[in-house]
Amino acid sequence: KENFIEIEDFGNNTIFNLLKKNNSNKINLYKKSIDLLIKIQKIKQKKTKNFKGKNYKIPIYNNNKLFTETKLFLDWYAKKNLSLKKRVIFNIQIKNQVKFLLSKLKLKNDVFVHRDFHVSNLMKFKNQLAVIDTQDATIGNKAYDLASLIDDVRFKTNKNLKNKIYNYYVRLNKKNINEVFLLNDFEILSVLRNMKIIGIFTRLAIRDKKR
Q: CB-hemisphere CA count at 13 Å for 197?
């Protein structure tokens, strides 16, 4: 009745937990994560019927949606840390910068975006990678989930490892991407995503008392 279905329990082996336990195997776990991401990005279906027989169309992750999410940084973090007087000018400047960055995105919104593709949502199950937490999926920019994985706030990685993961993705997608556009969008979306996360985590702490 609630339009939910549980297919299988994947257990407790998140990639996050495995990375914390095993330093030597990091790159292989990330490569498998990239392999999974590439599979996800090949999903062509943009609409489906839900369990009630109603049509569901996956929303487009457009610039308006990205702007609204990034604004959480101002609504919660800036509001908590700046006086009202400073905040007025600061908010105008940040909104202008965000709009400028969004205007510089190059790639189309044409792939399946998980939207929270990071090591806490990837799980090792029966020698494969499983993915959870897909309810916010959209059709958007192929650099978004890549940035979620590589510039993850939950698990700290060094620049060298980040570059290896990024280059592995590029190598597997050589025929399908413009490398200049991809790097451009990766850097922009990583900044905007992390601003959103700062806003969300501040909201969790203040509004929901989840410190």
A: 15
Q: Residue 128 is inside which H or E element, if any?
A: strand 128-131
Tokens 């991401």 belong to 37
C-alpha–C-alpha distance, residues 157 and 134, integer Å: 24
pLDDT exceeds 80 at position 144 = yes
- Provide the residue count of the chain: 211
Distance CA 17, CA 125 (A): 13
* The model's pTM: 0.92
- Scanning 22-157, the segments in alpha helix (DSSP H) are 26-41, 63-70, 72, 79-81, 84-103, 142-150
Q: What average pLDDT is seen over the chain?
A: 94
Question: What pLDDT score does 7 carry?
Answer: 76
For residue 204, what is the enclosing H or E element? helix 179-206
